[in-house]
Protein 1
Amino acid sequence: MKHPSTLAPILLALFCAAPPASAQNDTGRSLSHEAVVSAPVAKVWAAFTDPEVIVQWMGVAKAEMDLALGGRFSTNYHPDEAIGDPNTIEHEILAFEPERMLTLRLVGCPPELDLEMLHQTWYVLRFEPLADGTTKVTGTGHGYGEGAEWDELYAFGEVGNAWTFQQLVKHFETGEGPDRTETKAMVDMFAGAGTADADTLAAAPIAIVSATQDATQDAAQATASDVLLPGLSQRKAVLGVFTDLVGGSWTATGQWRGGPAFEQTQTFEWGLEGNIVHVRTTGQLDAEGNVGPRSEGVRAWDASRSAFGFWEFDRFGGVTAGSCGVDDGVLWYQYEYTMGDSSRTMRDTWRKLGPDHYEFKVGLWGDGEWEQVLLDGECKRGRPAPDSTDESR
């Protein structure tokens, strides 16, 4: 079978499209990305529909657009070819609303790609003008199936579409487009054209080997993911740790260094279809020992910082925010905490000891190590919380 992957970092990944949902019994999996672009909606719409603008940021060498129902949107990444030559990528316009929506399906692609498989997916772009003059762009690919080849296509789409949106944002912020050498290397590698030579690898470190080489496929995809979308591996690692925590209550206990006993219970639930984590904390509220809901928070990927973060809002009006991540399987939170007239870097860690048991630490952190552990305790799974249903799903 021909290689099923799209040209993930570029338009073939972004604009795969297929018959409307009404023509199918099963619309399959969906994959969405969004970005806020520093430009009015008219200019952002032109970035997807005006060939002169398209070639400035998408990395394509040639582009043609017939913006009409049933019209064609065609691109070619090879400077020495013309539209209509073998490496042309062609999409049919299924529907559009000027400056609001564009829906496409793939009807032509280079011969080494599996058009039959790609034709089962379709792509919807939505444009939302915001009050501050910027524009929110949301792209959703539909129709992804199940199985190893579909998983590969989905993974490439996840990385490639995010990379494409980053190029869009960069274009309007800096006026720059993607590096041509980098783009060509990605086209060659994701199309399954084979391993790049040494010069190409040196010039474009994102290049990956052909996905037909199973022995190196996983490592190659990981390398491409980290370069095309910095932090993707960390994002997946953090969400993977929360998979073990979601759906029940966890009680942390310990003794503050030179102070009182500590006990808090947290519940973890998915939000936004598994893209963020809601956390609710119950603990001591006052010196009299009264216990009740103490705080609620979110753990989520922060695209503006290319990092995973957390935000905690307590009932007393306080807000704690910082970063979180995973090192050697240990979940950590890091944040600044005011002590008197100074601010100190704090870290909380959860180290898994068993399916229902974690080591739990809180302390001062500096230069990559503990300066002082203030709480050395444990956290154990309790009964699923009766009110832990995520109403947003």
Protein 2
Amino acid sequence: MKYLPKSFIITLLTICLISCSTSSSLKKQHNGLKKINNNEYVILIHGIRGNDWFMSSIEKYLKLLGYKTVNIDYPSTKYSLNELIDLVYKKINKEIDLSTMKSDSKIHFVGHSMGGLITRGIISKYPIKNLGRVVQLGTPNHGSKIAGNFEKLKLFGLIYGPAGYQLTTKDDNRKGLFKPINYELGSLAGNKNINPLGLMLDGDNDGTVSVESTKVEGMKDHHIIKASHIFFPFYTEAKYQTAYFLQTGHFHKNNLNILN
């Protein structure tokens, strides 16, 4: 039997530690949240080099609250952002027909990292009937300086693919993809840096994306939590704040001792 890669073991241990250190009883984790009884869907979109597993924890959390979820898996490193927007939209429509939703239904979106950009792109290009609210988790709305520092390396393209080059701080790389935000969008930023490359970033950051880059004109609310980038969707506060925004249109700004 082959040994598991050390990096894989470290990743699993880190996720376990996050879950153990931030978890509590379901009653406490859901404090102030209500059970959803009507027809509300949440589309979950992971980030670059991720897969649907990275959104599985927050998906489970939302299901416990009664939301119907669609967790999209897509080849994030094979295509440009432009192409991924079309591809993910088609995948969503295979799961639920967005054009024939009932009038009392709501379609929410939760996007981690690049998934938040794809969400904005989908809403800009394909008007969503009965659009609810949108939550971004550590999304680089203005790119990441780290991507810009490494984009000239051949290895960068091999690892991150065409979309990786569109995640630099050059807004022209994303020109024409997004229309002004005229819907309720909440952006969560992290300030827990466990990535040495985060030293390249200015100000508070999650190790990959600066807090400032998570802000976007037209957003309804913005909030900072203690979360690192890659594990963002696994943090209990990230899950709680996501559900809180979906239900209220703003984040919980008080001290969340209920989660400790």
Protein 3
Amino acid sequence: MPRGWLDVAVAPRDAPSHPASALDATPTATEEQPEAREETSREEGRGRGQERERREYEMVFEESVVLSVPFDEAVAEVKKSLAAEGFGTLTEIDVQATLEEKIGKQIARYIILGACNPNLASRAIESEPRIGVLLPCNVVVREAEDGILVEAMDPGIMSTLVGKEEIRSVADEARRLIGNALNRLSGAT
């Protein structure tokens, strides 16, 4: 499993580290974790004078590796590594080209790959048909100052949001397979 994956994807910034509640989970690795803090604000209810408390949460929702290869080679290697773990590439969104075309904004190269493992997707949809709004797993390949950054969404977010044990087992398996793919890219496997 790659360093940094969370057992649960969302945790209050200052959550204690005991397993009593999903919101109390903390990252499995403390390396590079931001300072813990929580902000609270009060907002007026709609014309009723009621106040609502809003808590801001820090999410660690991805794992990443940095590659030192040309961008196009990195994209090809990511697809190959994902395929070795049973993930096909359903979508490839060129964010750089889209932003340039639609709003004239220029950014560094940035691709979002929609990765899908058909067996895992089938199990997840069978267990919870609404899970499709969280599929496929997004993997970003983008230019950064220190190389080509590959970031993969933590599939554990699905089980956190849905709360079904069947989804947790699918998410755990997806997390393991995506972690294997990232480790392969970084030379760890």
